[in-house]
Every structure is written in C-alpha cells, then in structure tokens.
Amino acid sequence: MKWLTKKTNWLVFIFCLFLNWFILRPILLPDTFFLAHDSTWLVRLQQFDKAISLGQFPPQLAPDMAYGYGYPLFKYYAPLFTFLSWLIFKLIGDYALSTTLAVFLANLIGSWGMFLLGKKIYGFWGGLVAVTAFGLLPFRALDIYVRAAFAELLAINLFPFWLHYFLSFARDKFSKKTIIGFILTSLGLLLAHNLYLIILAFVSPLFLIFFLTNLPGKKKALALLGAGFLTFLLASWFWLPALLGLGEVGVLGEAVKTNFSDNFVYLKQLWNWPWGFGGSAPGLADGMSFKIGKVHLLLAALGVLAAFLRKKNRYLVMMLLALVFFSLLLTLPWSSLIWENLPFLRTIQFPWRFLGLATPIIALLSGGIVLVDLKSFRPELKKITPLTSLLAIFLLFYFNLKYFVPQDLVLSAKEELLDRETIYQSAQNIAEYYPTKVERRPEKKPNWPLSFSGNQDAQVVAETPYKIIFRLNEKGQVAINRFYFPGWRLNWENETIPISPEPETGKIQFQAEETGEYQLSFGPTKWDRLAYGLSFLGFIILVIVIIF
Questions:
Q1: C-alpha span between 271 and 267 (Å, rounded)
Q2: How many CB atoms lie within 10 A of CB 209?
C-alpha cells in the first residue's frame, strides 16, 4: 500500500499520544497525584533529587527516609524510572507532574514499540490494533492506578521494543542498528525493574530455542553473546554493587515471607473479576482484579486461529503462545510444584506478576485479527481489513477505558504527600531495604547526631546527611545516628577508625581511643568504583561499535 509512508507513521505517533493522554487524563495536572498501594513515588523523587544535590551520584542512600538514618533504597531498587522522573523534574520543578509525565513517557515508548512490533508481524493495521490492545490492557490500569507499580510498568513498556529487536536479531539480515537497539533495550530492562528480570530469565530458554531454530549462523550467535556481555557491562554500575550487597539488607528475607500460594490467580479471575482498589488475598478474596480483558482474549484467539489457517508466521505465533500459556500457568495454583521446587521464584512473591509478561503478548496477538480472511467467503470484502481493525479499536476503548481512573485524587500533592513526617515514615512502606542489623527501627528523628554510653563532652562542627564532623573532648564508646552500612568511613587525623553496628538499632558505633576531631563520611566502596569503571569501559566499547 503506497500510502503507508513516513507521514502515516507520524499519524500513528499522534494516535499514541492521544491514547496515552486518555489513559492518564485524570492526573495530567500540576501538583496532582493519587493514592495507591505504593504512594512513595514523590518521596523517592524528592529524595533522589536531594541526594544528587548533596553530591551523591549515583545516589545510594535516601537522606531523610527512616528518620534521617540513611536508608539504602537507591542502591538496590532499579533506578531507571526514578531517573526519568528526575530529568523531567529538573525541567518543570513539579514532583507530582514529573512522576506522571515519566509514566506518560514510559507508556509512549511502549506504545511505539508495540506498533513497530505489530507492524513487523501483521502489517500496519495489525500494528495499530496491537498498540491499542497494549495501551488498554486492564493489567496496565492495575499497575498505574491500583498498585502504582511504575518501575514494573516501565519494564512492561520496554518489553515490546526489546522483542522487536530480538526478532530482528533472530530472523532478519544482520545489521548494526539491530545490535545497538537490542543492547539499549536490554540495558533498559536491566535498569527498569528487578523482579521483571527474574520473570524474563525464567522464560529465557524459550527465546533461546526460537533464536537457535532460526539457524542464526556463527556470526549472529557471537553477536548475540557479545551484545549480552556488553549490556551487563553497561549495567554493572548498578547490578554489581546491588548483588554483592544483598546480604546487607533484608530484601531477600522480606520477599520469602510472602506466601506465594496465597496469591495464585484462578481461571475465572483471568476471564472476568470485579474491579477494585484493594490488595491481593488468599483464594478468591482479592480486592483487585487480574482480568486479562474479554475483548483482548477474543481478538487474540481469532488472530491466532487466522495465523494458523493462513500459515502466516505460524512458528513465531507458536512461540508467543507458548510464552503466554507458560506465563499464565505460573499464575495458577496448578504450578505450585514449580514454585515449591525453584526457590528463586519466591522472590517474585506474587504469581500474578507473570501477567506482566503474558498480557503484552496477548495484546500483540490481538493484532492478528487483520489476518481473518473474509474475502475467501465474499470477494467484495477484500478491503474490509481497515473496518475490522477500527471496530476492534473501538471495542477495546469502549470496554477498557473505564478502568483507567484513580480511586482518590490528591489535589495538593506536595503539601499532602511530601510533608516532613511522611518522608521520615515512608521507609515503612518499602521496609525490605532496612539494613539487616536494624532489629529495632527508629520511630522519631534524633535531635543530635551523636549518643554516648557515659557523659562524654562533644561538639558537632558540621552535619549533612552524608558527612558529620565532630570534636570529642573525652574518650569512650560513641554511637552515631546513621545506619551502619558499607560506604561509611570514620577518620581521625587521617587515620581510619574501625566502626561496627550497634546491637538492635544497627547504628554506627566505635570506641574513641583519642580525643580530637573526627569525620564520618559516606562514599563509594572499592566494589562500587570497580562497577563504575566496568560501566565506563562498556560505554567506550558501545561508542566504538556505534562509530565503526
């Protein structure tokens, strides 16, 4: 079709803007946000910005969370969404709107990626149906307005782009553009959401089988290995310190406390279930809906049937179907044996998280509706594809747009969600990042950074969240109101003083053998520096690949 030109792509891009404006229309306002399961995103952004303004880049400790004791959230939580929010915040200066615009940008990236992917498999109209189905997935409404799981949402939005480049890698002619696209989208997934990576890792054998059965040849296989290695090199600044420091915080212990068997989904819930803003509960007592979407399922079923009847991309559709069925199986009680025998799966906590993989593929398969060959029955219907696609798009809007609304709006977000006490207490909502030595969590902001076992005399010369300079006039045991964590160093006259965690509180403590001026400061460890160096090396290699 000659009219499918670059101008048409621009029209599709405008459609994607329109679609995502509709999805976020209730909250695309200045200083306006909403209440959800995770209402800490404005706090995260504010703390991220404050950490950078205090000279910590990349940030590791949230300076004011957990009452100012130094909460290591940013060292472990995938940083990409917060970083995107921060870039927007530096432009507009509104915490709430910056977060919402970051969601909008993530959705726009996902929409365009799904259009390119759908167009690659089904053509223009198939891509248009697929992008609409993807944008209006009920699970995406759940991630935005019920859970506020923005990092997971970003990973789901990056997945279509990644799959587009993966298929190009596997099936198309070898090209530098494909390699670079695959590296950048893989890097995005690595930095978007920790648990989505585990989900993708679990199904990666299916992707590998598909790649190998396309007879890639030695050159492509080596390029895939090289691209994977370079991706991990680029992401090592975050992942190497996070993995090496997992034992320093309670994230793994908190994850396995969740009983996965209480959070399986039942088949009837996948077909239809009342919409709600509650939580996940055992059995059928869930207060939120895990419906895939009736229109989505019907369109995908017709698209798959048409693909098999017309022998169009049948092998690819089989792989996508295998991904869908396997992912859905892992959400159901029938998979309990798998969950019980693969301990690392328990870190995902909630089996229904696999819907984050199954539902985008179902949206993609919905684009196959354009393969329904009506002209076989009546030749005059040979131009019916656009009308069929538009009808599918209308049905998707009509049945699913209603889910994209918040339960409660907050019209003065900065005042209500970023007051000092809310920031101090916000660590309780994401408590898995407390250092392991903290058995008794702080309940108020300390008035002074030091505490003593006796009546020592001291003066605080200077204090910031990441540095304290103080003068001791007497020897003795001293505790400092910061959580003990790798990166803290105590110096006295250019000599490093050993520090340790105080029992129960986990605060930094040391034995002062000398009087005089001491300096406690937080900075990168040797492993952090190694990780930063590896990522810089990866960046140099990427530049060389791009140029040459």
A1: 7
A2: 12
Confidence of residue 252 (pLDDT cuts 50, 70, 90): confident
Q: Say whether both 489 and 399 belong to one domain.
A: no
Tokens, residue 109: 């990236």
Question: In which element (H, E) is residue 477 found?
Answer: strand 476-483
Residues 23 and 114 in one domain: yes
Give the model's confidence band at 384: pLDDT under 50 very low, under 70 low, under 90 confident, else very high: low
Q: Which two tokens stand for residue 174?
A: 């070898």
- pLDDT beyond 80 at 50: yes
Measured CA to CA, the distance from residue 41 to residue 47 in angstroms comes to 10
Contact 281, 275 (CB under 8 A): no
Is residue 353 located within the same domain as residue 482?
no
8 Å CB contact between 469 and 58:
no
Contact 280, 263 (CB under 8 A): yes
pTM of the model: 0.95
Q: Please determine, for residue 441, whether its predicted confidence score (pLDDT) is greater than 90.
A: yes
CA 125, chain centre distance (Å): 30
Which of 434, 487, 535 lies closest to 191, judged by CA?
535
Domains in the chain: how many in total?
A: 2
pLDDT confidence of residue 377: 44
Nearest alpha carbon to residue 81 among 109, 53, 102, 61: 102
Look-up of token digits 């398969």: 365
CB within 8 A of 14, min separation 6: which ones? none
Listing DSSP states for 335-349 in one string gives: GHHHHHH-GGGGGG-
Token reading at 295: 């229109």
Distance of alpha carbon 425 from alpha carbon 422, whole angstroms: 5
Task: Indicate if 34 and 79 belong to the same structural domain.
Answer: yes
User: Which is higher by pLDDT, 535 or 211?
Assistant: 535
Structural domain contains residue 423 = no
Residue 110 and residue 134 in contact, taking contact as beta carbons nearer than 8 Å? yes
Predicted local confidence at residue 3, as pLDDT: 46
Tens of pLDDT, residues 504-533 = 999 999 999 999 999 999 999 999 999 999
Q: How many residues does the chain have?
A: 548
Asked whether residue 221 falls in the same domain as residue 269, the answer is yes
For the chain, state the CA radius of gyration: 26
For residue 428, is it within any domain? no
Residue 430 counted as domain residue: no
User: 521: which strand partners?
Assistant: 467, 489
Residue showing tokens 């279509």: 160
| Domain interval for residue 314 | 6-415
Mean local confidence (pLDDT), 230-236 = 97
Q: Tell me, yes or no, whether 104 and 249 share the same domain.
A: yes
In a domain? residue 425:
no
Which residues, other chains included, contact 404 with Cβ-Cβ below 8 Å and sequence gap of 6+? 22, 23, 24, 26, 136, 141, 144, 145
CATH number of 491's domain: 2.60.40
